[in-house]
Amino acid sequence: MQNFGRVMMALAVDVSRFEGVPMAPPDPILGVSEAFKADNNDLKLNLGVGAYRTEELQPYVLNVVKKAEKLMLEKGENKEYLPIEGLAAFNKATAELLLGADNPVIKQGLVATLQSLSGTGSLRLAAAFIQRYFPEAKVLISSPTWGNHKNIFNDARVPWSEYRYYDPKTVGLDFEGMIADIEGFASGSLDEDAFSVRLFVKRGIEVFVAQSYSKNLGLYSERIGAINVVCSAPEVADRVKSQLKRLARPMYSNPPIHGARIVANVVGDPTMFGEWKQEMEEMAGRIKNVRQKLYDSLSAKDDSGKDWSFILRQIGMFSYTGLNKAQSDNMTDKWHVYMTKDGRISLAGLSLAKCDYLADAIIDSFHNVN
Ligand SMILES: Cc1ncc(COP(=O)(O)O)c(C=O)c1O
């Protein structure tokens, strides 16, 4: 009765209790997608978010995911809660994928793996752990990085600073700057994610690794990933895992099951695993073709003699164009190309057919806007 009375009183006052809550700025990446949706121009292109699209610029559900979901439906699996640490078969497959199934650290029980909410949620959990157990620690973040990395550590109250990574002069890697900023920390390989992680582990370095199946398996909205902590002794791994569970429980209680089952089916089955690798190669191949075509279009159309080969020297889903904020604004305002203001474009959202158009937009922005 008393509580009810209080609710009525709250409704009766004409000034909102939330009056002092300011409007938050739109997210720099997801805000780009919202602006893209609101644009009615047929030429529009969304190169902001890192989500894979087909050559027809449509979202793509991997065949191997559809196959796993069909199997799951046939088995008639239930929707009971998972334990805090997630699906055991998922955690096993995920740690093995990251470190290699025969890695001694797995056999020796040195790895604490907890299913969590894609890369973001897994990293947020690691940040909460760092804040609690390493209050003196400072996190190093590459410059530039995905903007949310800073939010994650800010919200967890973990201090961070940046290390040099990108050189705007060459639109490439600032190798000397990077080594100078992270000296004593880097082990050398920049090539493959798993290779560098395994090298750290092989050298006996204790690591946190946040894993995500958003991009490689196209499971963006399933929010599926994991945090792995490789420790120096099995008892330590047990204690670390117990504390990660303790942190996860009040945050979100336990993780969702659907994506975990898909991953466990695909990664845990040799045939499906092979099919997945093939589909990943196809996706990566399409992105590589688009990268090459964008370079060809830029070189063919731009008669200023500018060297665009930095596009080919970069790797992965994204590319830095070297465009500044004003030039990136021109890309959006004049050409309907939606991208982040640091000049980054997602090649995964580009098709071969749109490369010429994008090259025109980049050349115009580069030469005609300061
Ligand atoms: C560059 C980059 N890193 C990380 C993420 C995190 O993705 P997730 O939390 O889905 O693993 C994203 C998502 O858009 C991204 O664009």
UniProtKB/TrEMBL annotation:
Pfam families from the UniProt entry: Aminotran_1_2 (PF00155)
Q: What is its EC number?
A: 2.6.1.1
Q: Name one GO biological process term.
A: amino acid metabolic process
UniProt superkingdom: Eukaryota
Q: Which cofactor does it need?
A: pyridoxal 5'-phosphate
Catalytic reactions on record = L-aspartate + 2-oxoglutarate = oxaloacetate + L-glutamate
- Can the keyword Ribonucleoprotein be found in this entry's annotation? no
Q: Which GO terms describe its molecular function?
A: L-aspartate:2-oxoglutarate aminotransferase activity; pyridoxal phosphate binding
Instruction: Cite the SUPFAM superfamilies for this sequence.
Output: PLP-dependent transferases (SSF53383)
Q: Which residues form a coiled coil?
A: none
Whether Transferase counts among this entry's keywords is yes
Q: Which InterPro entries match?
A: Aminotransferase_I/II_large, Asp_trans, PyrdxlP-dep_Trfase, PyrdxlP-dep_Trfase_major, PyrdxlP-dep_Trfase_small
Keyword annotations from UniProtKB, A to Z: Aminotransferase, Pyridoxal phosphate, Transferase
Subunit notes for this chain?
A: Homodimer.
Full protein name = aspartate transaminase
Q: Which organism is it from?
A: Dichanthelium oligosanthes
